[in-house]
Amino acid sequence: MNRVGRFQLFAVQPIILTLALIVIITIAGFLTPGFLTFRHLKMVLYCNTMLGILALAQTLVILSGGIDLSIGSTYWITVMLGALFMVDGNFIVPSIVCIVVGATIGIINGVGVSRLKIPHVVMTLAMMIILTGTLYVTTGGGGRGRAAPELISLSTGRIFGFPIISLVWISLTVLFHIILKMTAFGWKVRALGSNLSACYCSGISIWKVQVLVYMISGILAALAGLLYLGWARTPYPTFQSGAGVGADIMLQSIAAVIIGGTMFSGGRGGVERTFLGVLILAVLFSILGMAGLGMEWQIMLNGVIILVIVGVHSRIGQQ
Amino acid sequence: MVKGIRKMPDSRLKKILLDWHIYLVLAVFWIVSCAASPFFRTIDTFSTILVSAVPIALVGLGQTFVVLSRGFDLSIGAVAGLATAVASVTMHFGIGPSIGLIIIISLVIGAINGLGVSKLNIDSFVMTLGMMFFLTGVNFLIRPSPGGFIPGTFKRILLYHVAGFPLVPFLILLLAAIVGILVLQKRKFGREIYAVGGAPQSAQMSGVNVDRTRIKVFAVSALSAAMAGLFISARIGSGNAEAGAPYLFDSFTAVFMGGTLVTGGVGGYRGTVASALIIASIGQILQFLGITIWYHFIVKGLLLAGVAGIQLFIVGRRRA
Question: pTM for the whole thing?
Answer without folding.
Answer: 0.86
